[in-house]
């Protein structure tokens, strides 16, 4: 199923894209040079929570470091207890052994949505998205840190999951941690962590000594500190406490956001994180190796970074299934088929005979644009493995546009690319998106649909009409609700019934797949 944006998602997006008072980071571009493996970067932020996935060494942590260095801060701005400065510099992340050659000839541009830019003759309006440039010449230093926009920025690395029982400082100060004055946000943190972990905390506070702190909680009659917390529990208290400590409009940057959390807790964490971001106007940029994290975010909040022929490539709007199959490096079968979403996959699986299904791999990519870009990446690599990208039926009229996306991704392609692209694409039946096509076809044989769904024939016509009126990609949400079935089951039953009753409609795509298998058999 395509990701369905909730009202909370829409509210978050609207605020993020229209707000200039919190100096949100909207774009990072590496325009010159190479920095710790990244030699090309252009990433835009259109949602306040962004997750970046990729194989080890692809450059995920480098992107986080660049984000941290986008801003300066006031001397009294928020800083983590162990830090001396309230802002980050490139030396916090990019340092070398004496035998290593320091990077040089680097230029980075940061697009920031701000309402207090310096007025100039060329730009008299202080409100808008403008760009600040950071550069480093060979043998030189990074330029003008003090000119950066002021903002609270916090980086939380993987050390947050190290138990207090394994932290030498915590063990050394175990008997001298003392109560401190309440910060005022303890109950909010307590409720957030309790929601994620399914616990009812009676009380939560931090004990402090010098620059170190120790969480302590009460659950029922039991009282325990960070020395006896699991890694995930301790990390959650640190994350939510940090957000509320930063105050309004901070940038929180986290490495491997899911560490210490099981799958259900990961989903609940993102759900509550969205609520906290709404409350505090916080922007979050993180890396992840978790499919669950990707599944909880809109497509344009997901990025996959990889190295293609020695050049860094960023793919946005990618499906979690495809991103994490790439990370797993799972070999396909005789033919790799890429589709836009789970509906397209279900339709193909229902249409194809078992003898073909056993020989192919169907992978959900996420969008038509992502399909086009993935073909471009395969072309650049020069991979000879058989592949077919199957677009939704409504993309037939948009083939020139999708070809354009692929050309832009591939960059400087030869004249044969257009022909290669067309030889590796196909379309689902119909002239519309697959959900709409399936429901429209179902109206032609209502009796058969009623039989497989055990539904009353008198009401099925109305149910199908409700589905068609629900809006693009919402058809099966509405139909499943009226039939008392979950969406996945409803989709499977409808696609199977349509394919069995309309074999001529899917014969073209089946023949195309059979021909490819024969050619490469």
TrEMBL record:
Entries under Pfam families matching the protein:
AAA_21, AAA_23
* A single GO molecular function term of this UniProt record: ATP hydrolysis activity
Q: Which InterPro entries match?
A: ATPase_AAA_core, Bact_Antivir_Def_Nuclease, P-loop_NTPase, Rad50/SbcC_AAA
Q: Which Gene3D superfamilies match?
A: P-loop containing nucleotide triphosphate hydrolases
Q: Enumerate the spans annotated as Rad50/SbcC-type AAA domain.
A: 36-109
A GO biological process of this protein is: double-strand break repair
Q: Where is the ATPase AAA-type core domain?
A: 228-294
This one is known as AAA15 family ATPase/GTPase
């Amino acid at each position: 199923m395509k990701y369905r944006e909730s009202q909370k998602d829409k509210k978050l997006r609207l605020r993020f894209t229209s707000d200039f008072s919190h100096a949100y980071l909207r774009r990072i571009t590496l325009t010159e040079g190479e920095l710790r493996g990244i030699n090309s970067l252009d990433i835009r932020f259109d949602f306040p929570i962004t997750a970046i996935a990729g194989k080890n060494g692809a450059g995920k942590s480098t992107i986080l470091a660049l984000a941290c260095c986008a801003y300066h801060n006031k001397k009294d701005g928020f800083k983590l207890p162990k830090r001396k400065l309230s802002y980050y510099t490139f030396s916090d992340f990019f340092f070398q052994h004496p035998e290593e050659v320091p990077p040089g000839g680097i230029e980075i541009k940061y697009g920031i949505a701000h309402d207090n830019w310096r007025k100039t003759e060329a730009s008299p309006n202080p409100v808008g998205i403008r760009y600040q440039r950071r550069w480093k010449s060979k043998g030189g230093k990074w330029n003008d840190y003090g000119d950066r926009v002021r903002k609270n920025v916090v980086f939380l690395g993987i050390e947050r999951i190290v138990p207090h029982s394994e932290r030498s400082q915590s063990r050394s100060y175990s008997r001298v941690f003392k109560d401190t004055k309440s910060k005022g946000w303890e109950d909010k943190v307590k409720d957030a962590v309790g929601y994620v972990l399914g616990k009812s905390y009676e009380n939560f506070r931090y004990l402090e000594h010098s620059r170190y702190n120790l969480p302590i909680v009460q659950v029922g009659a039991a009282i325990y500190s960070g020395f006896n917390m699991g890694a995930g529990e301790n990390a959650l208290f640190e994350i939510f406490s940090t957000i509320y400590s930063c105050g309004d409009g901070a940038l929180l940057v986290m490495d491997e956001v899911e560490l210490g959390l099981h799958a259900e807790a990961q989903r609940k964490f993102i759900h509550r994180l969205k609520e906290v971001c709404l409350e505090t106007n916080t922007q979050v940029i993180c890396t992840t190796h978790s499919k669950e994290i990707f599944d909880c975010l809109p497509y344009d909040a997901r990025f996959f970074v990889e190295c293609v022929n020695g050049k860094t490539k960023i793919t946005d709007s990618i499906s979690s299934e495809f991103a994490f199959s790439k990370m797993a490096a799972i070999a396909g079968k005789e033919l790799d088929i890429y589709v836009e979403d789970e509906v397209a996959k279900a339709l193909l699986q229902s249409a194809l005979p078992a003898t073909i299904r056993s020989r192919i791999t169907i992978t959900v990519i996420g969008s038509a644009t992502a399909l086009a870009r993935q073909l471009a990446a395969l072309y650049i690599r020069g991979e000879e493995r058989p592949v077919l990208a199957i677009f939704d039926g409504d993309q037939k009229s948009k083939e020139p546009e999708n070809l354009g996306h692929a050309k832009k991704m591939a960059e400087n392609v030869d004249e044969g690319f257009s022909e290669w692209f067309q030889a590796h694409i196909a379309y689902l039946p119909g002239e519309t998106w697959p959900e709409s096509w399936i429901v429209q076809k179902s109206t032609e044989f209502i009796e058969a649909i009623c039989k497989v769904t055990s539904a009353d024939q008198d009401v099925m016509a109305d149910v199908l009409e409700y589905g068609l009126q629900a809006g693009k990609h919402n058809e099966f949400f509405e139909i499943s609700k009226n039939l008392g079935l979950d969406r996945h089951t409803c989709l499977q039953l409808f696609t199977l019934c349509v394919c069995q009753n309309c074999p001529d409609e899917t014969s073209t795509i089946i023949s195309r797949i059979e021909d490819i298998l024969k050619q490469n058999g």
